[in-house]
Design brief:
Blueprint (H helix, E strand, L loop, with lengths): L1 H10 L8 E2 L11 E3 L7 H16 L5 E5 L8 H11 L4 E4 L15 H16 L1 H14 L4 E2 L18 E3 L3 E3 L9 E6 L3 E4 L5 E3 L2 E6 L7 E4 L3 E4 L13 E6 L3 E9 L13 E9 L3 E6 L12 E6 L6 E5 L2 E3 L2 E3 L4 E7 L5 E7 L16
Parallel strand pairs: 1-2, 2-3, 3-4, 14-18
Antiparallel strand pairs: 5-6, 6-7, 7-12, 8-11, 9-10, 9-12, 13-14, 15-16, 16-17, 17-23, 18-22, 19-20, 19-23, 21-22
Helix pairs in contact: 3-4
Length: 370
């Protein structure tokens, strides 16, 4: 793997090498990503892959994945859907299969399966800014991208035993369906409040809950206080420049994120051709605050607009950007408030508060916080 990386660099010095391996000693993460090799199209191998990938992350190999749908044997439509739903949230995501087997493509199992898989592939593309931030964190600290629950909840004895759920970063809790025919599963939510990603329902943590999961849905939860950047759906990475970023915010806690931009292809980022800024979010039931730190670096950001999508709102929202009022659209049915503003290189302070139901005057909450 090291020789392949060195050779690739010599052949194309300005291009970032991409090397993939299925074996290596400690330190392999410096030279290649690791995929788990020739798995089989069985439910047992699907479930086993979760533990394998979590252990790779804990062993210092954050960039890892498996052949979604299985490499050996023939996948079924149900298994392919469930595996692709889960794999969309792993660091390395691909479907792959052996010669002599049926095709394992999103369109190989009929229109209904294709539509479901397309939705999760699209969600993966939307989450690329969040994944990028997690890769940056892994590069600086070695922190796994795909994490066992006990990584963030070490004092939770139940979390320490969970092997069929995982966290993508700190804020997304993924609970795959790993049993054939299952349309619901028990999910352990650690301490704190959580939100269903699909319905927006707020759920107290520190308990087991039953998550309903018809074939088109995989249980997915978001930590209260989360900050997760999204972009528009693409058909391939780099199809269009990143011009608008939607920052999804869930109230009830604190979070931070290191935003980073570079060309994604060359090695020029190592020489300073990048821009970085810190995003810090804190919010409670009545209001909140988001600080987008000053841009640092020589590269000009491609982002033209930031769009705030605030979840879990119960009333109309009033918001300011650097002290100036902005127009906010509130949808009471979904509990979502949305506003946007132009990007700028200096520090940006966004504050909001929910308005009293009985008047147009804001509820005075003091300094926003969890």
């Amino acid at each position: 793997a090291r020789t392949s990386r060195v050779g690739s660099h010599k052949a194309a010095p300005d291009q970032r090498p991409f090397v993939i391996t299925r074996a290596g000693w400690a330190g392999i993460q410096k030279h290649a990503l690791v995929w788990t090799g020739d798995n089989s199209s069985t439910w047992q191998h699907f479930e086993d892959s979760l533990q394998t990938l979590l252990n790779l992350g804990l062993s210092g190999v954050p960039f890892c994945g498996c052949d979604a749908g299985g490499f050996l044997d023939n996948c079924t439509p149900e298994l392919f859907i469930r595996w692709m739903q889960c794999a969309a949230f792993t660091p390395f995501f691909r479907a792959h299969t052996n010669t002599g087997t049926i095709d394992h493509e999103p369109w190989s199992f009929g229109p209904a399966a294709e539509a479901i898989v397309r939705h999760y592939i699209g969600l993966r593309y939307q989450l690329l800014p969040y994944l990028k931030a997690l890769f940056v964190e892994a590069t600086h600290s070695g922190t796994p991208i795909m994490r066992p629950l006990f990584w963030h909840y070490p004092d939770d004895p139940v979390a320490a035993q969970i092997a069929d759920q995982f966290l993508l970063g700190r804020d997304l809790l993924v609970a795959p369906i790993v049993r054939q025919g299952a349309v619901a599963r028990s999910v352990h939510l650690p301490d704190g409040d959580w939100f269903s990603y699909w319905t927006g329902e707020k759920i107290a943590g520190g308990q087991q809950v039953v998550a309903h999961a018809p074939i088109e849905f995989m249980p997915l939860f978001v930590r209260a206080g989360a900050l997760i950047p999204f972009r528009e759906i693409q058909q391939f990475t780099g199809e269009r420049p990143l011009k608008e970023v939607t920052l999804h915010l869930w109230p009830g806690g604190m979070s931070s994120l290191r935003w980073s931009e570079e060309d994604g292809v060359t090695n020029r980022h190592a020489d300073g051709d990048r821009t970085e800024r810190e995003l810090i979010h804190s919010s409670g039931a009545k209001g909140g605050r988001l600080v987008i730190g000053r841009a640092v670096g020589s590269r000009k950001s491609s982002v033209r607009y930031w769009r705030i999508l605030l979840r879990g709102t119960t009333t109309r929202v009033r918001a300011t950007v650097n002290g100036r009022r902005v127009d906010v659209h509130h949808d009471p049915g979904s509990g979502i408030a949305v506003w946007k503003f132009a990007n700028r290189s200096g520090e940006v302070v966004i504050e909001w508060e929910q308005l009293n139901r009985r008047s147009r005057h804001p509820v005075r909450t003091g300094r926003p916080g969890p």
